[in-house]
Amino acid sequence: MALSAEEAARQAAEAAEKVLFCVECEDQEASIRCDDCDEPFCRPCWAMQHHRGRRARHSTSLIGELMPQPLAPSGSGADGGSGSGASGGGEGGGESGSAAGAPSASAAAAPEQSEAARVVIQGRMTAVKEAYTELYEFIPMRLTEQERGFLKVLEGVLEVSEYTDKVDVYSYNKRRVILEQLAEVFETLLAVVTTFDFKLGIGFAEVDLEDMDQHKSFLRHIFEVGRRHKIMNPDKMRNTYGKLMYIMQDAADRDAERDFGFSVQRHINTVTRFLTERSSLAILEDELLTKATQDPSLFSAQVAARVVADKRKATEVLCEKYASEDLSVDDIHHVISSIADSNCYQAQNAAPVLRMIHYLKSYYSPKQTSDERVSLRLRYGESGSKLSHSHSQQYTYVLQSLTLWRSISQQMFKLWMAADSDLQSDRGYRLQNTGQGLNRVQACPRVGRAMQEILGTVQREAGSWVGLSVVHLGDRDVPNALIFIDKYTQVARILRPIVSVLDNLEVMAEDEKVGKYIYQAFGSVDDLRYMIMTDFFKHAFNGDGDDGGSCIDGRLTSTWNWCSKLEKKPFYHVFLLAGFQGFDGSFKA
């Protein structure tokens, strides 16, 4: 007999309570357990706490999403299972791989490891290799201790500010309102910084607060810190980042610059910019940098210890080789940590997309089929569909959409930089009711060029293209670069819970009660997996988005619509039992 709704909800709550969070930051789900510390960590915190000294020799085990995943059906193989190598490191300051120089997964895995575990390790190494294609000039530098203090000050001020409430409304003298609100934000920042650095705050107090030109260096720095932090942590500042960028947008206006006597604009501090200022770009061409920036969490516990030792040795050699009056040992550690953070971010951001591509290729054929279980055929009007596709057309359409999302995820830092520049350009904006309230509509030429490059590359890779290739920017559907970048940072957030459920169905079925529910309600684990995948590949790509049809942005909007209807799906309780809490994350993160 199937589980009752109350029983399913109770087990879902129990599953949610079992979610482990990082003992260090306390807001990220833990993916690594240090066996010596006996504590769970997220990847960045584990790397930060265990990169040197005795802790670097601690043994670890993988938890959460890194647990062994089920094998693909016989004969299909895992997507990217041969990826035990690595991409080349920084030729001329170019691409950098995060797992280069590491032992191959198959050679390094312990004899007692299951074939499934080896496939997972290989797949994740390949995910990093494919995902990490960013140039060093787009990798932001990790925040220093002082900058983290400035970040807290900035977030606190933005949290209580009513800037957009007062500015983004129709008014007769908007210029005066903008200048007043900008002055209020600037003055509040200068006053509140005393809570972090008393001497600095007192120094500001001794200068006329209204003479903003005296404080331009600090204001430029604190705004740059907030923007840089957001790029590396898309799930942070979700309540305040939009407000920050709209303040920067208004401050870039010529009238504001003339009134305050300076501009608050400052380039994002990236790895290339940081090293250029210290005349030390040569370190980016050193092959050891690739080893020093590996992510040990991608390997088994046995291999991870060896990778950590290689990282430590490579770091020591780099410090001895490149330390100078211009570039200190701490600076080198700072650069290595920043690139390692980027590697981790790239792996986590692109891995769900790569995994979903693997499921599509492994379980479905592009050829026509009469088997309804694996048929992706769409009819116009069916479940709200605005598209009519044969099975082969829909397969190609989904694969092209996922491949495009993969490419966008791999070049997200470049898109962030382009969006940052577009928002602060002198082109101005207009307030317009887009159907979702008043929005700032502004042209996005840099983002547009970057997206056309990505789209062109994907189209050439695909050979033929199903659907439209229109990219909405600066219009009703995507008013400005901020809305654009926010849309595509959510791709991983959407796919990660789905991938997690698909990966862990066998593990869930091992529980007596949950297994009984799955077999009685769905027939088998395999039938359930096909039901989830077929429903997603059909109805999450059916063109029913508000911006409609098969355009580039409509594909993602359709997927969001599918997410909003998940609670009506017959497999919704399975998601709850797997610990699913939502696609949108926490806005307080």
How do the strands and helices of this protein lay out in sequence?
Layout: H1 5-17, E1 32-34, E2 39-41, H2 43-49, E3 60-62, H3 105-108, H4 115-131, H5 145-160, H6 163-167, H7 174-192, H8 198-205, H9 216-232, H10 241-251, H11 254-260, H12 271-276, H13 288-292, H14 301-322, H15 329-363, H16 391-410, H17 412-423, E4 430-433, E5 438-441, H18 445-462, H19 481-488, H20 491-503, H21 505-509, H22 512-522, H23 525-539, H24 552-564, H25 572-577
Antiparallel strand pairs: 1-2, 1-3, 4-5
Helix pairs in contact: 4-15, 5-7, 5-9, 9-10, 14-15, 15-16, 15-20, 16-18, 17-18, 17-19
Tell me about this structure.
With 589 residues, the protein is an all-alpha fold. The protein is 53% helix and 3% strand. The strands form 2 sheets. A 3-stranded antiparallel β-sheet has the order 2-1-3. The chain has a two-stranded antiparallel sheet with strand order 4-5. The protein starts with a helix and ends in a 12-residue tail after the last helix.
Structural class: mainly alpha
Report, as a whole number of angstroms, the end-to-end distance: 40 Å
In total, the number of strands is 5
Radius of gyration: 25 Å
Estimated share of beta-strand residues: under 5%
Residue windows where pLDDT falls under 50 for at least 5 positions? 64-121, 124-134
Residue share in helices? Answer: 40-55%
Order of helices and strands: HEEHEHHHHHHHHHHHHHHHEEHHHHHHHH
Largest sheet, spatial ordering of strands: 2-1-3
